[in-house]
Amino acid sequence: MRIMGWVRARRLFAVAGLVLVLGAGGVACGSDEKVEEARFVGAGELCNGLFAGPLAKKVESVTGDTVFYNQGTKGLDNVVDALKRGYASGRSWATGAELCRLEPRGGGSRERGGLKFSMYAPQDVGDLRMPAGSELYTMGLQAEVGKGGASLYVECVSPQLKGSEETPLRILGGFGRGKSDTPDTREFRDTNLEILHAASLVVVNKLECENNAGLTEKPVLEPRT
Predict the structure, then answer these.
(1) Are the C-beta atoms of 27 and 120 separated by less than 8 Å?
(2) Digit-coded pLDDT (tens) for 204-216
(3) Region of 168 on the Ramachandran plot (φ > 0 left; ψ -120 to 50 alpha; else beta)
(4) Does the pTM of the predicted model rise above 0.70?
(5) What one-character-per-residue DSSP string does 72-110 give?
(6) If you count Cβ atoms within 10 Å of the first and of the last residue's Cβ in the chain, which end, N or C, has fewer?
(7) DSSP state string for 40-75
(8) 203 Cβ contact list (under 8 Å, min separation 6)
(9) Cβ-contact 149, 3 below 8 angstroms
(10) Quick one: which H or E segment has residue 149?
């Protein structure tokens, strides 16, 4: 199951890994109530507080959920390690890793969403063959926004990446909100990209990308004309 079906096939590697089957079962009978509660948290507590503050309400607004399965704390490290490995491999693209999964309490696989980062191929930027209903925004090198999520392309020059002064690391971020009854309006499309922008800043800051990989501290939410 793909959480961003509106993304064309070549770019699915950015988000395909977001829908995962959890290996853990339900809490065993007789478990302490506090243990049960700890398994589920609000959006602001997910993934080391990735969505803390006003962003938590935005996540809730696009997903239509307020309680999520509590995630681990290694998402950012996993993403950074995967991007570095992909860059060091010399390949043109690499699959990356999941930053944060959004799995609502009581939801099935179609309700799961999240954020993933990977390394894209050079030819992906400038290829405007997008599915019907998606559109370009002006953020980054290229940003694509649709009802179900957003994709963002940036380049990173970093002291952590030998050779990146000549050949920057190409980072593709993908956000998918999962199945949701949220309407397809400009406000919610903007919110999809705003969530992805915030997560992208966390990643490029961890990588020490020069000039935040071209991202401003506040998101630029302007459709490209």
Answers:
(1) no
(2) 999 999 999 999 9
(3) beta
(4) yes
(5) -S-HHHHHHHHHHHHHHHT-S-EEEEEEEEE-BTT--GG
(6) C
(7) EE-GGGSGGGTTTTHHHHHHHHHH--S-EEPP-S-H
(8) 76, 79, 80, 83, 99, 117, 171, 173
(9) yes
(10) strand 149-156
